[in-house]
């Protein structure tokens, strides 16, 4: 079955422009599914798979207490896979047509309070020189633009318009959006560029953020740096670039920003994805009400 999954993943990469993260997850999901069919039913061709076999695989995940999010992602992978095979004429009937997803678990975004973010930047122990300037700029851009980890790693100097003070971000599905830069962040960026050129010369990497040796960043490197600084202001278990993205959106909403504007800044495809941040605001109002109202 691997030949079919390879063609499917190549289609997602070259035609659909799926992210590397999603492609990796789908590759693992399909490998697990193929192994299950082979070991339990002796099936090696997708046209031989039926709904009962798929339900059996999904039931196994439920018994292993996989999260609903994981369950639905694997289900989405199979839906896309069999839809592709049907469209390409590789199978006659789609076994996924009557298999439904689970209702997603209600999960509120984890974020840091405004005062903790302020402390992070005002009292953060940033190194002197290039490393400290890079780390601070990286955190500032995460918090003042709300961009994703993959978007920051892929950010190039050509995407920054210093004249108008804005950056062009290429997000999911290769969609582009423009995000303004605060004046102080723009000044920091220009200082960083000067220091980067001084260290690595005219032939320095086109990517904005680089390691100490001038190489493009990678996800685990960024996670480690972000965790290092967030640990100084927060005891939360989750410390990641995505928590800073959630903080950006939550703080903007709490200060009266329009939900549609936040949607555009975050690069969400639909408003429903952005509305999750309203729940944090409602919870905050409830806490204030219970603390302040004499009858509460």
Task: Describe the protein in words.
The chain has 296 residues and is mainly alpha-helical. The protein is 58% helix and 4% strand. It folds into two domains: 2-87, DNA polymerase, domain 1, CATH 1.10.150; 114-291, Intergrase catalytic core (hpI Integrase, Chain A). The chain contains 13 helices and three strands, in the order αααααααβββαααααα. β1 and β2 (166-170) form a beta hairpin. α6 packs antiparallel against α8 (183-200), α6 packs across α10 (241-254) and α10 packs across α13. It is globular, with a radius of gyration of 23 Å. The N and C termini lie far apart (61 Å). The model has no long low-confidence stretch (mean pLDDT 89).
Number of helices: 13
- Structural class by sheet pairing and helices: mainly alpha
Strand order, sheet with most strands: 1-2-3
Helix fraction by DSSP (H/I, runs of at least 4): 55-70%
Summary?
By secondary structure, this protein is mostly helical.
Write the layout of secondary structure elements.
Elements: H1 2-14, H2 20-41, H3 51-63, H4 68-87, H5 114-123, H6 130-145, H7 149-153, E1 160-161, E2 166-170, E3 176-180, H8 183-200, H9 219-230, H10 241-254, H11 259-266, H12 271-274, H13 276-292
Antiparallel strand pairs: 1-2, 2-3
């Amino acid at each position: 079955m691997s030949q079919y999954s390879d063609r499917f993943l190549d289609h997602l990469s070259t035609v659909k422009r799926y992210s590397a993260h999603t492609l990796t997850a789908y590759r693992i999901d399909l490998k697990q599914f193929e192994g299950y069919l082979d070991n339990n039913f002796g099936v090696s061709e997708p046209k031989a798979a039926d709904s009962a076999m798929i339900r059996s695989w999904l039931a196994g995940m439920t018994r292993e207490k996989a999260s609903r999010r994981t369950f639905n992602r694997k289900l989405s992978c199979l839906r896309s896979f069999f839809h592709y095979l049907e469209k390409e004429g590789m199978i006659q009937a789609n076994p996924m047509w009557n298999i439904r997803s689970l209702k997603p678990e209600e999960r509120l975004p984890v974020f840091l309070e405004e005062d903790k973010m302020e402390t992070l930047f005002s009292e953060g122990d940033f190194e002197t020189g290039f490393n400290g300037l890079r780390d601070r700029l990286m955190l500032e851009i995460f918090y003042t633009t709300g961009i994703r980890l993959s978007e920051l790693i892929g950010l190039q100097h050509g995407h920054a318009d210093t004249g108008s003070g804005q950056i062009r971000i290429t997000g999911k599905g290769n969609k582009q959006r423009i995000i303004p830069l605060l004046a102080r962040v723009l000044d920091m960026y220009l200082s960083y560029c000067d220091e980067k050129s001084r260290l690595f010369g005219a032939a320095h990497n086109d990517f904005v953020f680089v390691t100490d040796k001038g190489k493009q960043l990678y996800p685990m490197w960024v996670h480690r740096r972000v965790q290092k600084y967030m640990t100084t202001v927060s005891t939360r278990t989750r410390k990641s670039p995505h928590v800073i993205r959630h903080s950006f959106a939550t703080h903007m909403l709490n200060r009266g920003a329009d939900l549609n504007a936040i949607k555009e800044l975050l690069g969400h495809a639909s408003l429903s994805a952005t509305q999750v941040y309203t729940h944090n605001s409602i919870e905050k109002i409830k806490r204030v009400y219970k603390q302040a109202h004499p009858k509460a």
